[in-house]
Amino acid sequence: MLTAERTLTRADLRPATALLARALEEIPLYRWVLGEHITDPTLCEWLAEILVRPYLDSGFVVGSHQNEHLVGILIWHPHDVDLSPEGEPPLVPADFVRAATIPGLRERLIRFLTSPQLPSPAPDAVDVRIAAVLPEARGADALTGMMREVERFCVSAVRPYYAWTGSERLRDWFVHEWGAAPFATERRDGLDLYGVVSERPPRLRV
What is the pTM of this model? Predict the structure, then answer.
């Protein structure tokens, strides 16, 4: 089934959060952060919201729709774009009050927030941070359509894009279906994380 892609806005916060909350169990890094709470829908929605909201406000979330229903999101970020252009921080202490009261989750969240950033393969590379598609929409062109939005930006700016993922399936999709190349593997908190990078600029897909 064909999909339609567009940049999401703050008005899309609720459906974007709900979609990402459903996908967290399949994303190894965030499954680790939530730990034994991965089946708690309220905590999944809390984490999903703080992951997606700063990028919605800055215009770096692409959504894929089937029959006007959101079926996929892709969060990306150019290195030189400030997520708080008006001086307001993208996240505030109140965003973390709930997690601060839950032992285990609290410590993992602190580790997640304070760990060194995963390396970029080039100073100006565009970071593809999170990609999620609902199971019922896989096999369509949702992920490809969303990646085209990032690819167009990278082609016009003559930049590569890169992604880090704990999913071998997603790593292989980038490599075999999208022409990216592995550039690093890191092990963090028991997880193998795979870095992939495109050409500069990416080869434009049709």
Answer: 0.92
Outline where the chain has alpha helix (H). 13-23, 28-34, 41-58, 97-100, 105-114, 142-157, 168-178
Residue 9: how many other CB atoms lie within 10 Å? 13
pLDDT in tens, 58-72: 999 999 999 889 999
> For residues 114-131, b (16+ Cβ closer than 10 Å) or e, as one string?
eeeeeebbeeebbbbbbb
Give 75's pLDDT tier (boundaries 50, 70, 90).
Answer: very high
Query: In 3D, which of 88, 85, 93, 86 has the Cα closest to residue 113?
Result: 93
Length of the chain as a residue count: 206
Q: Are 163 and 174 in contact (CB under 8 A)?
A: yes
Give the separation between CA 115 and CA 124, rounded to whole angstroms: 21
Assess contact for 149 and 5: CB atoms under 8 A: yes
3-state secondary structure of 79: coil
